[in-house]
Structures are given as structure tokens and as C-alpha cells.
């Protein structure tokens, strides 16, 4: 195949204990999947259908030090369990959904909250608030064959050593299997897809110089430090 320019490198994530990496195809994100976070964002935690949005595949990053993004004065942290899809499925039954899972990781859905709030008020898309460069710091993927399928366990985030988010996977409004099944009624899930499953309460601002520690029991730990703004 001839191209008018060299195609960009395939976005990928390391796999714990493996030499091969996981190629990223799409990133799907679930909004408001913990009751307390739904309330803090002004929503109703009743069990309405899950809300989905997306990030570009190359938003993933495993870099330890990241530049503070442009066009925001309110960068916000959101720690999440990330599901890595290794199978293909459409209209998947919840009972069969976990068979599509390759493994799990800990990720951050970094959000330019000020831009998101402006977009919400104007009824506009969230893309620039959620899908910017390096907006998805992530750990290596732990294969489900080694770690199983976590359905409970503490998930936390600290900023400069101060605990900000503290939840448990068993508090997900929609479970991993239910999320997979529901999403598969809208799109064909394929190997390389990632699903970010939502964040617990306590989301808050991040400033240049801040260090974030995220952890999900049995899955992994993530550390990120934000430096000066891009271009500084």
C-alpha cells in the first residue's frame, strides 16, 4: 500500500509479563457510573442507560512526566478501571461478555473541566475537553488469564500524597459485563478496544507540578507528574 505520507505509529500499551504490546483500536469511556460521582456532577444516579463518549487511540500514554495541556485552567483527574478487549462481538449477552476481555489496566480520564462545562452549557460535543493529547495515562495491561475479572476492590487516586478519590469496583452502577453487552448493541467490539468504566467521587483539579498516584487493587498502580504547559 502506498501512502501520501508515512502512517503514524500504532498506539499501543505494554502487557505485564509479556514481550508483545496491546495495539489500541478505539477508546470508549463510560460517564457517571458511580452514584456519588454522578451526584457531585449534578446528575441523578438512578439506573439510566450508561453514557458513552470516546477518546482517540493515541490519547493513551505510559509516560511518567507529562506536559500540562493547553487551553485549560481546570484540568481534572478521574481514575478508572480500564477493560482491554481481545475478542469480537456484537449484541453480546451479559453472560458471555467477559469472554471478550483480554485484560485490565488502571487509567486516568484527564479532563479539561472548564472546556467541558462550556460545551455542556452550549449543548456542544465534549471532544476537546476529553480527547486531547495524552489525556489517557495508563498502566500496563494485566491479562485476565493471570488476574481474573475484578468485580470488587478499592480504586484510589492521590494528588501529592493526599487522598482525593476512594471507591470500590463493587459500587459500579453498570458492571463490566453489562457495559460490554450494552455497548455491543451500538458498535461491534473488536480486539484493541479499550473501555474506561467510570470514576468514583472526588474528582478535582490538577496543577503543574502535581504528582498523581492511582491504584486499583489487583490491577496496578500508576504515577504521573505534570510539568509546565506544552510549549513552555
Word description of this protein:
This is FAA hydrolase family protein. Keywords: Hydrolase, Metal-binding. One of its GO terms (molecular function) is hydrolase activity. The protein has helices at residues 35-40, 94-97, 113-122, 127-130, 144-147, 176-183; strands at residues 12-14, 21-23, 27-31, 51-55, 60-61, 65-68, 75-77, 79-85, 101-108, 111-112, 136-137, 142-143, 154-159, 162-168, 194-196, 204-206, 211-216, 220-229. The chain has a six-stranded mixed sheet. A five-stranded mixed sheet has the order 6-18-17-13-14, with no helix packed on it. With 232 residues, it is an alpha+beta fold. β17 (211-216) and β18 (220-229) form a beta hairpin. It starts with 11 loop residues before the first strand and ends with a strand. It has six helices and 18 strands. The chain has a single domain, classed as Fumarylacetoacetate hydrolase, domain 2 (Alpha-Beta Complex).
Main pleated-sheet profile: 6 strands, mixed
Query: How would you state the average pLDDT, rounded?
Result: 94
Judging from the principal axes of the Cα atoms, what is the shape? globular
The CATH topology assignment is Fumarylacetoacetate hydrolase, domain 2
Give Rg in angstroms.
Answer: 17 Å
The helix/strand series, from N terminus to C terminus, equals EEEHEEEEEHEEHHEEHEEHEEEE
Please write the CATH class name: Alpha Beta
- Going across the biggest sheet, name each strand in turn: 4-3-15-8-9-12
What is the CATH-assigned architecture? Answer: Alpha-Beta Complex
Hey, roughly how much beta strand do the residues contain? 25-35%
Low-confidence stretches: none
Head-to-tail CA distance between termini = 39 Å
The total of helices stands at: 6
Number of strands: 18
The proportion of residues forming helix, as a percent range, comes to 10-25%
Structural classification: alpha+beta
CATH superfamily: Fumarylacetoacetase-like, C-terminal domain
Number of domains: 1
Amino acid at each position: 500500500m502506498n501512502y501520501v505520507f508515512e502512517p503514524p505509529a500504532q498506539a499501543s500499551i505494554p502487557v505485564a509479563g509479556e514481550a508483545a504490546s496491546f495495539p489500541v483500536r478505539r477508546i470508549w469511556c463510560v460517564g457517571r457510573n458511580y452514584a456519588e460521582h454522578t451526584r457531585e456532577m449534578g446528575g441523578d444516579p438512578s439506573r439510566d442507560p450508561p453514557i458513552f463518549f470516546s477518546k482517540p487511540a493515541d490519547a493513551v500514554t505510559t509516560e511518567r512526566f507529562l506536559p500540562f495541556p493547553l487551553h485549560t485552567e481546570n484540568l481534572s483527574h478521574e481514575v478508572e478501571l480500564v477493560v482491554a478487549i481481545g475478542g469480537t462481538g456484537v449484541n453480546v449477552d451479559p453472560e458471555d461478555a467477559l469472554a471478550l476481555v483480554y485484560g485490565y489496566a488502571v487509567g486516568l480520564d484527564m479532563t479539561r473541566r472548564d472546556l467541558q462545562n462550556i460545551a455542556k452549557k452550549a449543548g456542544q460535543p465534549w471532544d476537546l475537553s476529553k480527547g486531547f493529547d495524552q489525556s489517557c495515562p495508563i498502566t500496563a495491561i494485566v491479562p485476565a488469564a493471570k488476574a481474573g475479572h475484578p468485580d470488587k476492590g478499592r480504586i484510589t487516586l492521590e494528588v501529592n500524597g493526599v487522598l482525593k478519590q476512594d471507591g470500590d469496583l463493587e459500587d459500579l452502577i453498570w458492571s463490566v459485563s453489562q457495559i460490554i453487552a450494552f455497548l455491543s448493541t451500538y458498535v461491534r467490539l473488536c480486539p484493541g478496544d479499550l473501555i474506561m468504566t467510570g470514576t468514583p467521587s472526588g474528582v478535582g483539579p490538577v496543577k503543574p507540578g502535581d504528582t498523581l498516584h492511582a491504584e486499583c487493587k489487583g490491577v496496578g498502580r500508576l504515577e504521573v507528574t505534570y510539568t509546565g504547559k506544552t510549549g513552555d
